[in-house]
Amino acid sequence: IFDLELNNVGKVYDNGTPAVIDFNLAVAKGEFIAFLGPSGCGKTTTLRMIAGFESISSGNMFIRGERMNDVPPQRRPTSTIFQNYALFPHMTVRRNVGYGLEVKGLAKAEREAKVERILATLDLEDIAERKPDRLSGGQRQRIALARGLVVEPDILLLDEPLGALDANLRKAIQNELKLLQKSLGVTFIFVTHAQSEALALSDRIVVMNQGRVEQVSPPHQLYTRP
Ligand code: ADP
Ligand code: ADP
Questions:
Q1: Fewest CB within 10 A of the end CB: N or C in the chain?
Q2: Where is the ABC transporter domain (predicted)?
Q3: 44 lines ligand 1 (CB under 6 A)
Q4: How far is the first Cα of the chain from the last one, in angstroms, to the nearest whole number?
Q5: Cβ of 16 less than 6 Å from ligand 2
Q6: 213 vs 8, 43, 46, 50, 80, CA distance in Å?
């Protein structure tokens, strides 16, 4: 049984834009998948359909065998990390990280234990009482990761999460993502328009162009046009 399956998934926006056409993909548990392609090719739309923020116009999507088409985002076993991190500026780091567990209604003791564990994993303990707007881009990125991971999703969805970081920091966070993938066994779906990023991170790369999947290959077999 696959962790994630998209069968002929399509998206036509209300204004008639065919954003995604016949998308097929089966992802194993713990795989790191990159969606790669130029701006406007349909990467974010596909990610948003997996998360449930965007409805699916045609085809079917399954997570661990369960059909997800009509399941609302908060009931899907996914977490999304947005490009701008979308942290709450008025809440401490600890509260930002624990927020998803509050929403889920977990008891305080259980919440605190999970939050402490993920703060430690991502080396955020020293800044746990600070507010995100005074922190660096790399720190905010790690907070966003912690917030996504603390709810223990089966699938972590990342929408161009490294775009705002400088080259050194990007390298550091890339390493961290690979370590998390190995230690937690979480499935990663990572949207990027940067080939170097897809090559560095993924087990398989899904190359998209004008709404269609052009190829699905491991990095060393990636075919690029001359
Ligand atoms: P990206 O290229 O990173 O996906 P965009 O700048 O293309 O981001 O889009 C930013 C936001 O605008 C997204 O929420 C997207 O859904 C929305 N958007 C993009 N294109 C259109 C469009 N043609 N009509 C309406 N909304 C759009
Ligand atoms: P990417 O993430 O690869 O940049 P998107 O999924 O954001 O691509 O966009 C795919 C296509 O859908 C583009 O033509 C974009 O303009 C269009 N689009 C995105 N969001 C919307 C929207 N909310 N309404 C209408 N068209 C959209």
A1: C
A2: 4-226
A3: yes
A4: 37
A5: no
A6: 11, 10, 11, 16, 22
Residue 120: CB atoms within 10 A of its CB come to: 12
* 66 Cα–ligand 1 center, Å: 29
Q: Could you tell me the distance, in angstroms and rounded to a whole number, from the CA of residue 38 to the centre of ligand 1?
A: 13
Testing ligand 1's pocket by substitution, the residue of 35, 44, 162 carrying the most ligand atoms inside 8 A of its CB is 44
Residue with tokens 């991502």: 122
Task: Give 173-201 pLDDT, tens digit per residue.
Answer: 888 888 888 888 899 999 999 999 999 99
ipTM over 0.90: no
Determine the Cα–Cα distance for residues 155 and 187; give it in Å rounded to an integer. 5
45 C-beta closer than 6 A to ligand 2: yes
Convert the pLDDT of each residue in 88-141 to its tens digit: 999 999 999 999 899 888 999 999 999 999 999 888 999 999 999 889 888 898
What's the number of CA atoms in the CB half-sphere (13 Å) around residue 153? 28
Helix (H, G, I), strand (E, B) or coil at 149: helix
Report which ligand 2 atom has the smallest distance to the Cα of 37: 3
User: d(Cα 76, Cα 150) in Å, to the nearest integer?
Assistant: 15
Ligand nearest to the CA of 208: 2
Q: Which atom of ligand 2 is nearest to the CA of 35?
A: 3
Place of tokens 């995100």: 132
User: Is residue 45 within 6 Å of ligand 1 at its C-beta?
Assistant: no
